[in-house]
Amino acid sequence: MSSTEDVIMAIPRELTQNPLRKIWMPCKNGLPEKHISQKRVCMTNCPTLIVTVGLPARGKTYISKKLTRYLNWIGVPTKEFNVGQYRRECLKIYKSFEFFRPDNEEGLKIRKQCALAALNDVRQYLSVEGGQVAVFDATNTTRERRATIMRFAEQNGYKVFFVESVCEDPKVIAENIVQVKLGSPDYTDRNTEEAIQDFMKRIKCYENSYQPLDENLDRELSYIKIMNVGQRYLVNRVLDHIQSRIVYYLMNIHITPRSIYLCRHGESDLNVRGRIGGDSGLSPRGKEFAQYLGRFIQDQNIKDLKVWTSQMKRTIQTAEALGVPYEQWKALNEIDAGVCEEMMYEEIQEHYPLEFALRDQDKYRYRYPKGESYEDLVQRLEPVIMELERQENVLVICHQAVMRCLLAYFLDKSAEELPYLKCPLHTVLKLTPVAYGCKVESIYLNVEAVNTHRDKPENVDISRLPEEALLTVPAHY
Amino acid sequence: MNIAEDNTEQCGNSLTRELTQNPLKKIWVPSSKNGLPERHIGQRKVCMTNCPTLIVTVGLPARGKTYISKKLTRYLNWIDVPTKEFNVGQYRRECVKIYKSFEFFRPDNEEGLKIRKQCALAALNDVRQFLTDKGGQVAVFDATNTTRERRETILRFAEQNGFKLFFVESVCEDPDVIAENIVQVKLGSPDYTHCNTDEAVADFMKRIKCYENSYEPLDEELDRDLSFIKIIDVGRRYLVNRVQDHIQSRIVYYLMNIHITPRSIFLCRHGESDLNIKGRIGGDSGLSARGKDYANALGQFIQSQNIRDLKVWTSQMKRTIQTAEAVGVPYEQWKALNEIDAGVCEELMYEEIQQRYPLEFALRDQDKYRYRYPKGESYEDLVQRLEPVIMELERQENVLVICHQAVMRCLLAYFLDKPAGELPYLKCPLHTVLKLTPVAYGCKVESICLNVDAVNTHRDRPSNVDVSRLPEEALLTVPDHH
């Protein structure tokens, strides 16, 4: 074929493999071009503005925070903007419900200003700071307010998705007030009775002007209406992938009190020898831990406990000692260290010093050759998280990297912190949702084990000396 | 620590069973006395409900109930939930050999009502057999079920048998949608083989009318204790009530992601790779010269098809990305589309696998779907990792997926409803594009060979799969390579 032929043919670009993530990208002169998209969750072209709707004490902030935590964990940069916070910054001192009276001109003015200030920060986040999703958490109970927000979204090219929470169950509302309102900065100087009284009057201020999302009037909007804490949902016009994921997530969460227990398998033979990965069995101390774990679980007297393990021998051996049925999940398998499987850190430094340095430079995104990254782990653990949300009391017996990922989800840890979270052997973490977050209790079961935690060394440069690389390797046999 | 005679270890106060690794699936299971595996404790399966589920469609004729039933059944079977649909219309056709006219469905036709009730009960009987005797997990009861009375009957049936109930109602008043529905699936129905189009349409519209007066849609108030999803206007709006468990949650998610907008899905493999030529499996090699030719031909083919808003997806392996590069449009890399991980057999030739791992090679031939390579994956694992890809394919419109042999087999099996036994042997040759277009209740397949030579990588199941077989018997079906 001569070069003068007018062939409409793309000239395939040469490919080079990014050394950190092992992604193949087109390159020019051996240097990578801006790489074409690796599958990211949110393939919308424009940012999304999630807008909560509902009377006070309907769980809007609970939903906002939880959703934000979930989206960030799966890699979608998300931030919540709570208008109540803006109001507190503006007003400094909360006197009483009177502030919220619909005839309080001054109050209305301030509240509107706060909403606009929050929207301004939303714009900053989505248009300037690279955010993908913003959650605008306020009552937004009038059609007028929502119209303002929609105009704002239109002007800025954001998609809008409403999340309305409707609930008339007095018990749910009362529990809500106890859990999150009594402790609010608004009520630090009140006793419980006073606080509840005031808050109920506050709710009343909104009731008359509340215009719920309407099947007919709002038929062009994209929204989910959550009724009675998830008993029923109305979903309208889901526009894209991220909205579909949000709906699925919201439909799987619940507020029934429960606890999630996370722990690793008992100490393994490879652990003892300072080797990573593999599929070895428990060491004698590991077996002892398994026994102690069984007793611990019995003592806790947990209602309908589900036990999950990975498909690796060491977690299953650990579960066997509990004497209760357990479910094996391949998705809970330890991170695949590829060519580094079963090596000691000293050997990795010797055979793959470049890889070892890259890993220290960006432990979250670093993918082992023919293996996985923490980023890959999170993607494979997402169905586990979704099912954990659906379940009640669960004990997850897993592995160091896996446990770090799950913990980061529950405790809202960033990608930078995640790979360095401390998850020592023979220690159970009991997570109990409370208020807007998670209470953590750490229970060390008093069976000794090697330390497998390797801190980030000071020198992460590829030019570093072996000693510098191996400085933080924990002791082993 | 003592190892007691019955092969358990005595440690502390309780006995821990020894574990043995199932040679096929590489799953660790407690072993009994003789080192043989006991019935293994639950491997993660999708449907962890303790009781079977009965899905019941609700809606006027031509609202997509059968479309939904078949599609849902296909999806659930693919993700390994044994599911079967029971179409009451089918039972009616078997009972009333010849369909005369809509008069059969008139609400005042006593004889008709009697037959229709019998058919419903016959279908429910088969449902019971499937769920209770034959190990089925989900049954889809596909009929109009438009009256509260009929649904009561079904409720009682489910209660008596310990089945969970989930209703799927389709409500639609858009005349265009209904008309298109009639054209797509009713005109070709056995009921209308002897009518011309106009007659068929006229009769069917009257049939719909027969149901309209007695139609009692699921009601937010009256039916607030039932578990259901109400699909309004082909997915514009959904009402979801009382989702009880994991499988219902998955069903709802699936139903909320499917659509009926016409589109095509193009499936193909990467161009021939260097390892392909050498007869080696797996790895991450680049395209051979012929593979590059194919990539260019693919680019030309795609352009000539003039596809609206085509999305292109690849795996994260070099050979699919190289192929996409030649197409010259933006593409998205999915790790989930990576080829099956052959573990210790990566980059080996079949001859070498036979030499080094003859037992593994035989086990694979015995059950290719469930067989997991040591330190690798099985087709069963592949399906689980491809599920989000399928979900996103359902959401999308025109998509070209450039992937790999085992992956393409899994995706194809989903679209063409192929069971686990056939899936690993589906023919997905190099340099051939499959164009899948949803039509009626299924998928039209067009196979387009782009006329660039390539090695054959398809290995049929040999006659002898026994562990004791000779090497020659094992290697009988290995395709040629250099």
Instruction: Assign an overall shape of chain A.
Output: globular
**Biggest sheet strand line-up of chain A:** 5-6-4-7-8-9
Main sheet specs of chain A: 6 strands, mixed
Helix content of chain A: 25-40%
Rounded average pLDDT of chain A: 93
Oligomer: homodimer
Low-confidence stretches of chain A: 1-8
* Strand content bin of chain A: 15-25%
Q: Supply Rg of chain A.
A: 26 Å
**SS class of chain A:** alpha/beta
How many angstroms does the end-to-end distance of chain A come to? 64 Å
H and E string of chain A? EEEEHEHHEHEHHEEHEHHEHEHHHEHEEH
Q: State the helix count of chain A.
A: 15
Number of β-strand runs of chain A: 15
Protein traits:
homodimer; 477 residues; alpha/beta; six-stranded mixed beta sheet; 15 strands; 16% strand; globular; disordered N terminus; phosphoprotein (chain A); fructose-2,6-bisphosphate 2-phosphatase activity (chain A); transferase (chain A); nucleotide-binding (chain A); P-loop_NTPase (chain A)
Q: Overview of this structure, please?
A:
The structure is a homodimer. With 477 residues, chain A is α/β, with parallel strands linked by helices. Residues 1-8 of chain A have low confidence and may be disordered. In chain A, helix 2 (83-91) crosses helix 3, helix 9 (284-300) packs across helix 10 (313-320) and helix 13 packs across helix 14 (400-411). In chain A, strands 5-6-4-7-8-9 form a 6-stranded mixed sheet, sandwiched between helices. In chain A, strands 12-11-13-10-14-15 form a 6-stranded mixed sheet, sandwiched between helices. Chain A has a 3-stranded antiparallel sheet with strand order 1-2-3, with no helix packed on it. Chain A contains 15 helices and 15 strands. The longest helix of chain A has 24 residues, at 105-128. Strand 9 of chain A pairs antiparallel with strand 11 (237-241) of chain B, so a sheet runs across the interface. Chain B: Pfam families: 6PF2K, His_Phos_1.
